[in-house]
Amino acid sequence: MATDWQALDRGPVIPGASSVAYRTGDWRQERPVLDLQRCVHCMLCWLYCPDSAIRVAAGRVVGVDYDHCKGCGVCAAVCPPRASAIRMVPEGAA
Ligand code: SF4
Ligand code: SF4
Hints:
The protein is of the alpha+beta class. The chain has two helices and four strands; from the N terminus they run E-H-E-E-H-E.
């Protein structure tokens, strides 16, 4: 006899696991450095960051969550050239 689909466990749920609690930023080899003086708060970096690591407050970019940023560089790539508010630097560099 077939099992009712509504009685099945949800497939993609891993009980007890959370990406919030896991510091994926430890994998990073480069990190984005944000220059808030140059930022025009277009929010493209926030929109495209695959790790939701761009911090926003009151509709403005305020920083980077380095605990979860993996250093992919997408934010720097999408930042408008006229702003160029994000540069990638080797992890550990100033
Ligand atoms: S480097 Fe990648 S993960 Fe880190 S803030 Fe930029 S887009 Fe997000
Ligand atoms: S993409 Fe660049 S200019 Fe736009 S909000 Fe992010 S840092 Fe600021």
